[in-house]
Design goal:
444 residues; 68% helix
Amino acid sequence: MTRSLPRIALVAFVVGLALHNLAMAELWQLGVRGPALDVVAAWKDVLLVAAVAAALWGSRSLPLSLWADRLALSFAGIVVLYWLLPQSWLGGGATPRGELFALRHDLLPVGAYVLGRLLVISSHEWRRVAVALVGTAVAVTLWGLVDVYLVPLQWWRDSGVPGWFEEQLGLAYRGLSGLPENWVLNTGDEQNPIRRLVSAFLSPLASAYLLVVVLLYLVARRATRWTVAASGIAYAGLLWTHTRAAYLALAAGLVVLAAVRRRWIPLILAAASLGAGVGFVKAFPHIGPSTSYTQAELEILREQGRANPDVGTDPLGGSDASTASHLRNLRDGVEAVVRHPQGYGLGNAGVNASRTGVPPVAGESTYTEIGVDTGLAGAAAFVAWMLAVLAALRRRSAWMTAVWAAVLTIAVQTDVIGVHWIAYVVFALAGLALGHGLPDEEGT
């Protein structure tokens, strides 16, 4: 069991984390709430700790042979140091609970990376992981498309999802009756909001990022009728998430894949994907699954419109609410890190601050959130670790090099390590590629 647990954990993360939010919301609806649901939701953390412990027991040593390994350990050390430092020394206002949330948030990808570095996997076992990856992407897409076209938004308003987010996670959403506002695309027409694919993740962003990872894997493999069919389904899912950052990340990953493989096909696919993405963004308000706002939601939207009269609705014009918010948060985050280079301490940025009632000093961008929590030293260690992994992957796995480049691109405007599927699965796969390696993506 000790030898097999790390491999079982990897497959469990691939599949289980795609279902996690939906399962927790349903349990909340059934009455499993508060500390009891927190215990259930911690299955992934317990499994990661157990898998790393089992892998360390088998190897009897930490992986430290690569610069990426040492930088990961350095970053983890800085995170722990900032957790120990009193908030009053740094000017932060985080609560002890928020500090614990941030400690877990920052150390999870390190733990997953260590798990991957220690993992020994055969070609047969890798095929199981690959089937889980592709099967999960296809299932996420198919379920998501059925949902947005056949399941009324009101069903979700009345489900356990609002309670799971607000009462259990402390994330209060006003504009869509407790559902995350990014579930719909605000077209500017009060009668024609368009639903985005959220699937079992309950998030268009997390769904999109999984699909980017799997699409890059399918392109990196030798083309067969099965990979082409799976690619078509996954790409449709990606389009219906209406996540422009993911469209750009996929193109960036394909360009990197073309460079590493020295082939033109991924480059052609990158250009075609960008073109299709632009066309779909323009067409989506006309062809997407339409829904409707409640009267209370309309009042909130009108209030927000009066408060931000200059915000547009053209998703390609750069002035829409989403783009304006991302740019504003990125700018404010960079200014906060430059103004306060020593950092504010863990728990003062992003969702970890919001969940505990603390005004976030920075939000969304992975880099600025880490800079706020752990100062320039922590941000520099994190970026150095990311770049060291990218450089090492280039010699070991074209697919994971492309995925890593895509993830680094997404991290500019998203707390990408806050997406558990990325933090657990992608970081573990990167560690695996740098350790015992992945089978050739062009093989079977």
